[in-house]
Design goal:
The complex is a heterodimer.
Chain A: H1 12-66, E1 83-87, E2 95-102, E3 107-117, E4 123-135, E5 138-141, E6 145-161, E7 176-184, E8 194-200, E9 203-209, E10 213-221, H2 248-253, E11 256-257, E12 266-273, E13 279-286, H3 293-299, E14 310-317, E15 327-334, E16 341-348
Antiparallel strand pairs in A: 1-2, 2-3, 3-4, 4-5, 4-6, 6-7, 7-10, 8-9, 11-12, 12-13, 14-15, 15-16
Chain B: H1 12-62, E1 72-73, H2 86-101, H3 108-111, E2 114-119, E3 125-132, E4 137-144
Antiparallel strand pairs in B: 1-2, 2-3, 3-4
Chain lengths: 352, 146
Amino acid sequence: MWNSYYQKGLSLVEALIAIIVTSIVIGASVASYSIVSSTYQKQSNLIDINNNSRQSLTGLIQDIRNAGYVEYQTNHGALTDFISIESDPNYSCCKKIEVTYDQNKKDRITVSYFVKPNSNQSYDLIRSSQVLRKEGSITNSQPKIDLTVAKNIDVFQLNGLDAQGKTTSVNNNIKTIDIYGVFRSKSEFFNQVSLFDTVIVNKKYSFNDKFFRENFTTSVSLRNTLTASSAVVFPKLKDAFGREIDKVEDIFSNCWVFKSANYPDKWMQFMTRSTKGAYVDWGCGSNNNNVNAQQMVGYLSMTFRYHKVDQYVNVSTNSTGNDPNAIVIDVVLTATDGITKKNYSFTINSLR
Amino acid sequence: MIGSLWQKGVSLIEALVAAVIIGVGFISVYAVSGYAVKSINDSVEHNQINFLSNIAAEDVITDTSNASNYTFSQTNCNFTKSNITQMALEKINRMKDIFLLNQKYCNKNSHKRQINLINKKNQKTSIINYQHGLNKKEKRIFLLVE
């Protein structure tokens, strides 16, 4: 600027042009800032939906898969009603689910999922869990833990399917659960009102606002129940060494004999393992002189690791007189559909 | 600038070139922000389709002896099925409803999103094949059916 003799400063035109150019540049940067910031908003909304859906559904799937699991030699008793799905009486958008399973020998956990309205005119999905701890004769409930697993969920629906794949409202018949969730962005996403329509299990849900919504649907099958259909495959019984049991001698040679207060003379217990990892815990006893079938039934217990099976046990002797030289054990495994059955029959020729 | 005695300031050409460069910078910011939203949307979709294919996987896992029944090719939400068990029929029909619910998965040609479940008789594997997203990414899930 100082190299020119004549120039004293900027001319008015130059100054005006400079001001115009500068304001265009500033205007563009302000506009790009607002675009970048709205992009950031949209991204964080989408990431939010993604995280909420993945985190909550994965956890829910995990809990449903565990439902009905009974730990081998659990301190708790049998577990019969381990799943329940019901309509939420307070919020028509959503359902509630409750599952129970063993975490280990002493802890049995009950987990429920339900929604709670939030300040954002939507709902939060809550996982509420409580552990029942049983050690020896002492049973106590651990504190309840409530966890918000997803924010801004507009619809949370569950549909139970029975063994034939049909929708069922009877909790004990549920074999598969379809999970439907409509997740919503935390803040307004669109510049204009946009319609989101969806039909979930014959019910229409319609939203007309500026929020972004996405449907997430998945399905989970219960692991601790037999699939009752023509395709029911019962696990083959195996002994503790993994050998299939078809003759009683096999069982007999692998049993542990110990005395019991109720059966002071002869008492034996053996553990078998089925092909699919199912543990079958058997105990059978004899008071030497005669076998009381009813008493024995009480001591025949089964814990299937992956399948829940009703059992009907009949024990009889095939000898006359007081000293049985053989015990016949008939076991009928009945699948939870109450129809499909499988017979197992073992004969114990002599007791040690 | 100082080298020339006659030059009083920035020439118009120089100013225009500078303006174009700055303009390109701003346009690329717009483009990148649009692409960023699309990519994340893609990730949401990926997540969504993962959950959807889980439905097919669970159905096969729980009915392994009839796995071949669950073969379907999803184009315009028409499922090919013949000679299958009642259970498979119910489940596939309900799967169809679910795909219809997620409308965008129903039109293979316009959206290039699809889920195919390939089960061959007497073979112990089951393949869930799906395509999605901007670059028509393909993903396959193999299940071992015993």
